Amino acid sequence: MLSLFARHIASHLPVLRTNVLSSSVLTASAFVATRRTFFTTRRIQLPAAVSKSASTPAKKTTKKTTKKTTATKAAPKKAKATKEAKSKPKSKAISKKTVERPPPKRVPKSEQPPSRPPNGYLLFFSRLVQDRRSDIKTAMDTQDLAKEAATMWNGFTLAEKQPYYNEVEVLKKQYEEKLDEYWKSASPKTLREINARRKHDGRNKIHRPHQENHYKRPKGPFFRFIEHFRQSDDGRAIQEAGVTATGRGAVNVAREAGVRWRAMSPSDKAPYVEAYQKEHADWQANHPSKSASS
Fold first, then answer.
1. Cβ 179 vs Cβ 208: under 8 Å
2. Which residues contact 9 (CB under 8 A, 6 or more apart)?
3. How far is the C-alpha of 141 from the C-alpha of 133, rounded, in Å?
4. Do 227 and 235 meet the contact criterion of CB atoms below 8 Å apart?
5. Beta carbons within 10 angstroms of residue 258's beta carbon
6. Which mean pLDDT values do the consecutive 10-residue runs of the chain (294 residues) have?
7. CA dist 42 → 36, 38, 39, 56, 263 (Å)
8. d(C-alpha 214, C-alpha 216), whole Å
9. From the CA atom positions of the chain, what is the Rg in Å?
């Protein structure tokens, strides 16, 4: 308001007008210079936008560098894998060496224990094979002969089988004598070689008996009766019956022998008791150290 009033007075006064106008121009110019507006303030210049064509190569370079770094990091894993691959064949070679060991050598038959004697049927079958050797030419002929021998053996009576049983008992006594002589002369080295070969073939090992025959105690009266009953007609019949609902033939023989032994009178048991007492006295006389320890 004051400026308008001053201008009004100055318009009427020429001298003052010129002074006032000059001063107003100065003040206006100074105000314009000092006052900031949207048009007078300086704009902030942002950086120029980078084009896509210029930015893609940078990405490629970064990818390459990352690939190189990953490749350099994965290199030790390859080295470990090659080391493992090199170490694995060595273990395979060692296992092959252990598997490819030569089998133990066979011990000559003369240094092995004597073979067990056959039973009555096998003895009959071996005699039949010897008689018909000329007719056997193939494996089928042997199978047919075995079937025929089984039917013939099952059709025999106890009287017809008795000669084979008697011969088996003689062979058993000879086997026991040979076995005693073998264990007296067999060396531990030979026994180890035999067991090594038997283990390789999947068979059970043989062991030296703890007591030789001349150290064995004599059998008691009941066991003597069982042997006698096993060779009797009733015992043979039970053995020939084979497996039944009560058990195997040997079990049934022992069970029936026990029943008959308990039913026997002291006079019937006397022969078995006297035989045991006589052998036991001889055993004590020949082995005083064994009898004293017992």
1. no
2. 16
3. 10
4. no
5. 14
6. 59 52 48 51 60 52 49 51 53 54 84 89 90 84 88 90 91 91 87 88 84 68 91 87 85 91 93 91 73 52
7. 10, 9, 8, 34, 137
8. 6
9. 59
